[in-house]
Design a protein that fits this description.
The chain is built from 2 helices and 7 strands, in the order H-H-E-E-E-E-E-E-E. The protein is mostly beta strands.
């Protein structure tokens, strides 16, 4: 595995620490990502998304959804003290899990719902007014005359 040193990037940029941290996190992440539980990420509108996670066998009380440090944490643990059952075949996995999703800037979790064995987490990108692009009017220097507008004339 290669390792990259991002120290020169930190020295040559101002305000891009999050980008360098993201690159560092991506390159240092384990190659083998967990595949349980399966999930979908869909775009439901221009600035809206939904993460759907298959959580068959878990009740809403056994699930946990948290947002901290710019990432979404979803975890599930079966309640203790449940009566042991004798299975002839067990194909529905109800093992504990924890999934993390990195959230982009200005993405907020708007809600979560548990239905038909699926956990749906709705997200929306809400860009604040001060972060939206805006046009800056350029002021003229003191004493500078406004530019004279040339008019087109017909010449015979």
């Amino acid at each position: 595995m290669r390792s990259f040193d991002f120290a020169p990037l930190y020295r040559a940029t101002v305000g891009f620490d999050r980008v360098a941290d993201l690159m560092d996190r991506v390159l240092s992440a384990d190659v083998a990502q967990p595949t349980y539980p399966p999930y979908n990420i869909e775009k439901t509108a221009e600035d809206a998304y939904r993460i759907s996670i298959a959580v068959a066998g878990f009740s809403p009380e056994e699930l946990s959804v948290e947002v901290k440090d710019g990432s979404l944490h979803v975890a599930a643990r079966k309640a203790e003290g449940e009566a042991e059952r004798s299975y002839l075949h067990r194909g529905i996995a109800t093992r504990a899990f924890e999934r993390r999703f990195a959230l982009a800037d200005h993405v907020k979790v708007t809600g979560a719902a548990h239905e038909h064995g699926m956990l749906h987490i709705d997200l929306a990108r809400e860009i604040p007014e001060e972060a939206k692009p805006r046009r800056i009017e350029i002021a003229r220097a003191a004493g500078e005359a406004p530019a004279i507008e040339a008019k087109a004339e017909t010449v015979n």
